[in-house]
Amino acid sequence: MTQKQLQETTEYLISKGFDNPEIGIVLGTGLGKLVDEIKNPITAHYNHIPFFPLATVEFHSGKLIYGELEGKKVVVMQGRFHLYEGYDFIDITYPIRAMHALGVKKLLISNAAGSINLDFKKGDLMLIEDHINLQGGSPLTFKDVARFGDRFVDMSQPYDLEMCNTLIETAKKENISLKKGVYASVVGPQLETKAEYRYLKIIGADAVGMSTVPEVIVANHLRLPIAAISVITDEGDPDNLEPVNIEEIIRIAGEAEPKMITLFRELIKSL
Question: So, what pathway does this thing act in (predicted)?
Fold first, then answer.
């Protein structure tokens, strides 16, 4: 990745009409309907954007959408990238750097996750308060990283307290149950064994997924305030573990999505 590549990416998007977006949004598995709420949308398909990877997961659609939401200019990733698709950390976080280069000042992230905390049930929302990186690497391990930001990035408070508190207050006001917890990010794409679920509980995880953490690390590298919500789509109870059904995960994410959209819309309104 070079500054020249980022410049070419942003010039292409600006030529498409992506004009000074304020807020970036990353939509996770089964959570694409927020784009239906965007006014005057402009779409750029990943395969047309210079230096963008391609989304290879069938339920990730692979589009960058620009428009207006709650009076703010937003740019939305409908479909993200994962290590398990064969990409590296630089690839999967490149869109975050592109959104920042376009002018994005705040970042909202969603994902689908499995619960480790057995108080969390399918369809619950969890505000990510902290995370554990179990992906075996970092998106900051490249030679020219210091040209893009500090090499040694502080992660004592990776999620923006002000935005998190707004989401908590909004959830109370809207009567939406919003859990709080720690998200563990693994490589995947295989799901966890019983022993792995037990391990994740021991080390302090409340939920587990295969994304988000690299994006959060890069956002912190860029000093981009961030808030993230997991939709709990399956339960990792090692004593009663059932085979995972991907279709059911997508369905549960879709059913919980309106609550997440409400929280994100109200947060955007307040920014």
Answer: Purine metabolism; purine nucleoside salvage
Instruction: Indicate the burial class of 8 (C-beta count within 10 angstroms; 0-12, 13-18, 19 or more).
Output: middle
Bridge pairing between strands 23-27 and 72-78: parallel
CATH number of the CATH domain containing 224: 3.40.50.1580
Cis-peptide into 189, omega within 30 deg: yes
Is the sign of the CA dihedral 123, 127, 132, 136 positive or negative?
positive
Dihedrals phi, psi of 145, to nearest 5 degrees: -55, -35
- Residue 192: DSSP 8-state: P
- Residue 7: phi and psi, rounded to 5, are -65, -45
Range of the domain at 69: 3-270
| Of 115, 76, 88, nearest in space to 214 by CA | 88
What are the pLDDT tens digits along the chain (271 aa)?
888 999 999 999 999 999 999 999 999 877 788 889 999 999 999 999 999 987 666 555 689 999 999 999 999 999 899 999 999 999 999 999 999 999 999 999 999 999 999 999 999 999 999 999 999 999 999 988 988 888 899 999 999 999 999 999 999 999 999 999 999 999 999 999 999 999 999 999 999 999 999 999 999 999 999 999 999 999 999 999 988 888 888 899 889 999 999 999 999 999 9
**Domain count of the fold of the chain:** 1
**Per-residue b/e over 139-177, b at no fewer than 16 CB within 10 Å?**
bbeeeebeebbeeebeeeebbbeebbebbeebbeeeebe
